[in-house]
Amino acid sequence: MSETFTVVRTATIDASPADAYRYVVDFRRWDDWSPWEDLDPTREKSYAGATTGRGARHAWSGNHKVGHGRMEITAADEPTRVDIVIDFLRPIKATNTAAFVLEPSERGTAVTWSMTGRRTLFMRATGIFRAIEAAIGRDFERGLVNLKAVVEASVR
Fold first, then answer.
1. Looking at residue 53, which CATH number applies to its domain?
2. What is the CB neighbour count within 10 angstroms for residue 144?
3. 15: which DSSP letter?
4. What total number of domains does the chain contain?
5. In this predicted structure, what is the pLDDT of residue 22?
6. Which residues, 6+ apart, have CB-to-CB distance to 23 below 8 Å?
7. Contacts of 106 (CB under 8 A, 6+ apart)
8. Could you point out which of 48, 96, 102, 118 has its C-alpha 20 to 30 Å from the C-alpha of 69?
9. Secondary structure E strands in 78-155
10. In angstroms, what is the C-alpha Rg of the chain?
11. CB-based burial of residue 125 (10 Å sphere; 0-12 exposed, 13-18 middle, 19+ buried)?
């Protein structure tokens, strides 16, 4: 069994890569589409560093559904890619990387959201990864549906 995991989901948005990119490269705009936004509307959020792009940072602390963590954009290639490092601090400690890749397609923009991390000894021993992958995958799918709706509404 591999020591790493990767979760990948893709959706097509009827808009240009630049239109979608602006919602991914700015953590403040994640409030409009993030699949976790409605899990704890009272969670604490903070932003630091750059406003958008490389160096932009976001931290959150909330209930058991959203936990506590922080993320930082480590690379941003407008309008095709955003790379993020995510530190989950609670309920489970982990550091993962995420990427958004935006590619022109016949129907607009194919947005691929992926996350890669280490399979911990606990994950390997309990086989819990399948449940985690399914949960993260569902979250990514819901987030991409939300992103699609927001971006397409903004270009109408």
1. 3.30.530.20
2. 21
3. S
4. 1
5. 98
6. 29, 30, 32, 33, 147, 150, 151
7. none
8. 102
9. 81-90, 94-105, 108-118
10. 15
11. exposed
Chain centre to alpha carbon of residue 39:
15
Q: What is the pLDDT of residue 122?
A: 63
Q: What is the extent of the structural domain holding 140?
A: 4-155
**What tens-digit pLDDT sequence spans the chain (156 residues)?**
578 889 999 999 999 999 999 999 999 999 999 999 999 989 999 999 999 999 999 999 999 989 999 999 999 999 999 999 999 999 888 899 999 999 999 999 999 999 998 876 666 556 665 667 778 999 999 999 999 999 999 998
Q: What is the pLDDT of residue 134?
A: 79
Q: Show the tokens assigned to 151.
A: 């971006």
Entry pTM: 0.91
What is the DSSP code string of 51-72? SSSTTEEEEEE-STTT-EEEEE
Q: Residue 30: CB partners within 8 Å, gap ≥ 6?
A: 23, 37, 58
CB 18 within 8 A of CB 154: no
SS3 at position 113: strand
